[in-house]
Amino acid sequence: MTPVTSPPHGHAAAAGANGAPGADGLDPEAVSAFQAAFDTAVAADERIEPRDWMPDAYRSTLVRQIAQHAHSEIIGMQPEANWIARAPSLRRKAILMAKVQDEAGHGLYLYGAAETLGTSREELLDKLHAGRQKYSSIFNYPTLTWADVGAIGWLVDGAAITNQVPLCRCSYGPYARAMVRICKEESFHQRQGYELLLALTRGTEAQRAMAQDAVDRWWWPSLMMFGPPDDESAHSAQSMAWKIKRHSNDELRQRFVDICVPQAEALGLTLPDPDLRWNEERGHWDFGAIDWREFREVLKGNGPCNEQRLEQRRRAHENGAWVREAAAAHAAKQSARASQDGASRTARSEP
Ligand SMILES: [Fe+2]
Ligand SMILES: [Fe+2]
């Protein structure tokens, strides 16, 4: 990865040091000019691009966030993949397979976005496998019945969209652009989950009960997906100032609850919260207290499936080693052939 060498686009004149070494090699005056150009670009809602100068903390915050997001996409394939072989019809199986493949694709775009910040995919995967980087705690819950596939689509992908739509306007260009396509696909995921639950709630009494049970188990963990309350969220304020984040955790959580309540009603399902009521004054749904102890425990690695998920991920990585080797060998052969062809073309065209 080339070190970052220029100020945010359109502000080169302000710093006047195009082609300078990274921030470490710059004198303090140049750094403050770069910083000023960066601040101006962020304030003007311009995108920061990979070759632009950026503060080290901005870069490391993005790497942490994008890596965690990428890991969540690929770990998130596991709970649902559990049901591919047991999908109740060919149609449901095809839909679920497409969805799980989409999640692999999301991981790919996001690892690609992280690579533009100077980290390699191998490094990030190593950290995930060593338990040094996190993924969303929601994927440490088990998928016990077929209805869980519906509840995940409706609630987990639904929460993901609520979180991710504002990221399409994130200040870092490659991340923002990856999110545009991801959000379109997440919206399909959310609809398929809703439609699956609708089919169950219109089915037999046992199917309706299965849908209700799944929603009972996934509702609270979905609310936890937005992260800790604003007053306990360590990174929120700085991320908002950098326009990586556009809304606070509590704001997004409220938005999600407001969206879900009428949808639950339309499904004929009850959200498992006795404190849920419309607050005329606020113009929002009030909801009960979240069990943050449970959230912290799952985050610490003590959720029902933490070990299983990581073990499965490590195994998949080891089993895929031969594919990576073959792909690398193929790429090396192709580029050797291309440079050989190029050399012989040059030789032919010489007088
Ligand atoms: Fe996804
Ligand atoms: Fe999804």
Automatic annotation (TrEMBL):
Its EC number is 1.14.13.149. NCBIfam families: PA_CoA_Oxy1. Keywords: Oxidoreductase. This is 1,2-phenylacetyl-CoA epoxidase subunit A. Pfam families: PaaA_PaaC (PF05138). The keyword Cytoplasm does not apply. Residues 7-23, 324-338 have a biased composition (Low complexity). InterPro entries: Aromatic_CoA_ox/epox, Ferritin-like, Ferritin-like_SF, PaaA, PaaA_PaaC. One of its GO terms (molecular function) is phenylacetyl-CoA 1,2-epoxidase activity. The lineage of its organism: Bacteria, Bacillati, Actinomycetota, Actinomycetes, Kitasatosporales. It comes from Streptomyces smyrnaeus. The keyword Oxidoreductase applies. Residues 1-26, 324-351 are annotated as: Disordered. It is an enzyme of class 1 (oxidoreductase). Coiled coil: none annotated.
